[in-house]
Specification:
The chain is 47% helix and 12% strand. By secondary structure, the protein is α/β, with parallel strands linked by helices. β1, α2 and β2 form a beta-alpha-beta unit.
């Protein structure tokens, strides 16, 4: 395969543009507090473990993470609330695998 002068120059120009332009960058995240929904009662094992995790995440991200307990229906209530939240990355779901995996086989309707 032979490379023409024009294709070589076009490739070189593209490589230089990529080199000097730097990586594309999205908006900084997070820019505001994050909500974490725990679908179990406060003080439960899932709540305690989630709060430890979210506290460390908060320090790492530099933004507060507000934990909201929304118990009920074996974790389905809080999980449904998290699923219906705006898909902007500012709502997290904490807890075990019960509401996410096991309840799908146990209940006909999760919401």
């Amino acid at each position: 395969m032979t490379v023409t002068r024009n294709s070589f120059l076009a490739g070189a120009a593209l490589a230089l543009a990529c080199l000097f332009a730097g990586p594309a960058r999205a908006e900084d995240y997070p820019t505001r507090p994050i909500t974490a929904i725990v679908p179990f009662a406060g003080g439960s094992a899932s709540d305690v473990v989630s709060r430890i995790l979210f506290e460390r995440m908060s320090k790492s991200l530099g933004q507060p993470i507000v934990v909201e307990n929304r118990p009920g229906a074996g974790g389905n209530t809080g999980s449904a609330d998290a699923a219906k939240a705006a898909p902007d990355g500012y709502t997290l779901l904490g807890g075990g695998s019960g509401p996410v995996a096991a309840n799908v086989t146990r209940y006909k309707h999760l919401d």
